Every structure is written in C-alpha cells, then in structure tokens.
Amino acid sequence: MITVTGARKNYGDFAALDDVDIEIPSGSLTALLGPSGSGKSTLLRSIAGLETLDDGIVRIGGDDVTGVTPQKRDIGFVFQHYAAFKHMTVRENVAFGLKIRKRPKTEINRRVDELLGIVGLDGFQQRYPAQLSGGQRQRMALARALAVDPKVLLLDEPFGALDAKVRADLRTWLRRLHDEVHVTTVLVTHDQEEALDVADRIAVMNRGRIEQVGTPQDLYDRPANDFVMSFLGSVSKLNGKLVRPHDIRLGRESALARDAGTAGSVGITRATVERVVHLGFEVRVELRNAATGEDFTAQVTRGDARALGLAPGETVYARATEEPALPETTRVPIG
Ligand SMILES: Nc1ncnc2c1ncn2[C@@H]1O[C@H](COP(=O)(O)OP(=O)(O)OP(=O)(O)O)[C@@H](O)[C@H]1O
C-alpha cells in the first residue's frame, strides 16, 4: 500500500499539489489521470522521492519514506523518454541494477532472461538500444525497472512518445504483465482511454487536487462531478445538462413519441441534423437544438443512422435515455 497524506507542493505561488490524500492498494494498477499541469507527475515524483514535498507524508508498505532518498525507496521508475545506456546491450541494460547490487552472475543471467521473456524481448539480449523500436525500448525499460524486484513500479507516461497503434499494443501488454507480476503500479497518463483500458483504479486529478478515485466503471457510471464526467469519455450538453452522446436517442417524431409517452412531452428535443460523421461501426450526429440553437452531439449505431435516414437539414427528435448520474457531492472519500 502506498499512502500519501496532506501532500502540498508549491512552485512560487502555484500549487502543483494542493492537499492531496490518496491510498494506492498493494498489487493494484492505479492510473493518475488528468489534464496537462494537473499535478500527476509531481505526485508520482513525490512518491518516488524525486520531488520534496512542502508538506505531507508518503508511506510505502507502512513505512514513512518522506525523508528517504529515491535509491532507498525500493521503487522502479520508467519515464516517457527512457534513458538507456547506449553502449550497453539489452542484457547489460536490464542487468545493470542487479550488477551494482553485486548479485551472483548466474542469478543475474537467469533473472534477465526471465524478464526479457515476460516483456516479449526474448532473443534481443545482444542488441543495442539503437537497434530497438520505441515500443521495444520501453519494454526494455520496464524489464530494467522490474529487475531489482521493486515494491512499487512508477510509470510516467511510459508510452507517451509512441504512435497510437504501438501504444494500444503496449497497454494490453502492460495489463498482462501486471496480472503476472502483481507489483503495485502507478501509471501517469492524460489519456482517458489508456486509463480505462489498463487500470483497475483511476484517480482523476485537476489543478493539484484529486477529484475522485474509483474503478473505471465507477468513474464512468457515477462521476462525482462535471469535471470527472467530461474527462472520462465524451459528453454533450442537452438542454443545459451533461449527457453522454451514446445516451441520446434519436427518432422521427412518431417513433420517439411512442417511446417517451406523448409527442411534445418533457425531455423530447426537436433538433436539426447539421452533420453526420461515419466512425466505422458508430455514427456521430451533430445536431442543433431547434428551441435553444445550442449544438449537441449524439452517437448512434450505423444501423440506427441508416434506419432513420439521417442527413443534414433533416429534423429529428432527441431524448436523453438516462439522467446523468451526478450526485450533489463533488468529492468522494478516498480509499
Ligand atoms: N520545477 C518546476 N518549477 C516550476 N513549476 C513546475 C515545476 N515542475 C512542475 N511545475 C508546474 O507544476 C504543475 C504541475 O506539473 P506536473 O508535471 O505535475 O503536471 P502533470 O499533470 O504531470 O502535467 P503533464 O501531463 O503536462 O506532465 C504545472 O503547471 C507545471 O508547470
């Protein structure tokens, strides 16, 4: 378990961390998710000991490590731009931490081979970092961070510099690696899809504070506030309320009216189709509210779009299928 209590970090007048409390359970893969500048890296680096807090306590496995140097915190760290030793082979890079700990050579070789197997780099032992792709280099970085059996693995946008396809592959792979190794992992990302995909818990950060912590499903289904709702998935505004585009039903008058009770009943909005964008299986429909002139977006299946014959200029009727589940409270207990 990692526990951060009352963490504050200021840069001049600017509060990068503004009284942050968080508990990260042992064996979890927790994502710190938030926009640029929200304090994710500062929090991660404080857990690593690379940043000194102005106030607050960091505990790892019950021990107060607030004043302990990074080297003695028993952590593995991977950055976006991993600084590999260029003159060393993959084997030597991964073995580095074990070598300086003076482990026996046979043990080092066994461990390095095992790790390279886990990260899918078997057979790459003799290559140099320059002979690896970006994705392979990040996997080598993970193997190196894991080599010394850290209590905690800290990842700061580890896939940030890679293209979308490689990122997606590495996500799946990180998830599998975590299921195998179970090391308590904290991943910093600004990419909600990445967080939803790999993490079992997500802490949403905004302006140096934690807005909400929970499972991906909790956060998506029961966001504590508009910020969390907008950050986890797309949102649209229908008659002043935030709604997920998937949760907007479209219909021609009679069908939707039958569905909703009577024509013109509360909650049915007349709208004009502005644009229809085909996104593969789904279709994004950009609409204008006939009463308010506000633009909003619905997302429907290709089949529904075809059945409705959606085209720019057409009039349709929209209804939110669910009330957005926004409770009164804006904060949720942590842990
Ligand atoms: N050494 C520093 N000196 C001054 N300001 C800093 C320093 N480090 C970070 N900051 C500021 O603190 C804020 C939080 O930075 P941090 O890197 O934690 O954000 P982040 O959420 O990780 O964002 P990003 O995704 O862009 O890295 C930012 O506004 C940043 O400009």
Written account of the structure:
One of its GO terms (molecular function) is ATP binding. It comes from Rhodococcus indonesiensis. It is built from ten helices and 17 strands. The chain is an alpha+beta fold. The strands form four sheets. It has a six-stranded mixed sheet with strand order 6-7-8-3-9-10, sandwiched between helices. The protein has a five-stranded antiparallel sheet with strand order 13-17-14-15-16. Strand 1 (2-11) and strand 2 form a beta hairpin. Mean pLDDT is 88; it is low at 261-265 and 324-335. It binds adenosine-5'-triphosphate. The site of adenosine-5'-triphosphate (ATP) has 11 residues, from helix 1. Residues 11, 16, 34, 36-42, 190 line the site of adenosine-5'-triphosphate.
Task: Record the SSE blueprint.
Layout: E1 2-11, E2 14-24, E3 29-33, H1 40-48, E4 55-60, E5 63-64, E6 75-78, H2 90-100, H3 105-118, H4 134-147, E7 152-156, H5 164-181, E8 184-189, H6 192-198, E9 201-206, E10 209-214, H7 216-221, H8 226-231, E11 236-238, E12 241-243, E13 248-251, H9 253-260, E14 269-279, E15 282-289, E16 295-301, H10 302-308, E17 315-320
Parallel strand pairs: 3-8, 3-9, 6-7, 7-8
Antiparallel strand pairs: 1-2, 1-4, 4-5, 9-10, 11-12, 13-17, 14-15, 14-17, 15-16
Helix pairs in contact: 2-3, 2-4, 3-4
